[in-house]
Amino acid sequence: MAFVAPTAEELGLYLGLPEIDGARADLLIQQAVALCETVVKPLPDQATAVVLSAAGRAYVNPQQVSYETIGPMSVQRPSGSGGLYLTRADKAALKSAAGRGGAFTVDPTPATADPSPTYPVDDGYGPPLEYEPGWGWV
To answer: pTM of the prediction?
Structure first.
């Protein structure tokens, strides 16, 4: 099944807003999808949560204001403020949903490998075939 981008109505529902600017929401969703595709392409079906999260952050707080004091007006913005971005957790979630990341094992043995030994086998090496109690291998 192919990834289907969320709608502006779904973004409004995700944010808990009774009304939403449809054109702005569509633009942010489109840009969030493009940004997510820089991490994983094609996007898995579970990427909807990451797309809504990134678009929701940009819709609610477009200038990334980190703290605000109302009287007498004080606002703090990070350097390079504003815009749409993916957090480290967003990128990890995208990779995990796509089946990437985590521990894995690589077996370098070819499928056609023969399990028999390739070194010379010496039949005379090792203990004799008979064991006598008290004397050991004789």
So the answer is: 0.61
Is 61 within 8 Å of 82 (Cβ atoms)? no
Is 39:91 a contact under the CB 8 Å cutoff? yes
In this predicted model, what pLDDT tens digit does every residue of 12-63 receive, in sequence order? 888 898 889 889 899 999 999 999 999 988 888 889 899 999 999 888 877 6
The neighbour count for residue 70, using CB atoms within 10 Å, is 7
**Range 6-15 burial, b when 16+ CB lie within 10 A, else e:** bebebbbebe
Of 23, 16, 28, 37, which Cα lies nearest the Cα of 83? 28
CA torsion angle 50 55 57 59 (round to 10) = -160
The token pair that represents 52 in the structure block: 């809504």
Residue with tokens 């392409």: 41
Q: In 3D, which of 83, 79, 107 has the Cα closest to residue 35?
A: 83
Instruction: Please name the residues in contact with 121: beta carbons below 8 A apart, sequence gap of 6 or more.
Output: none
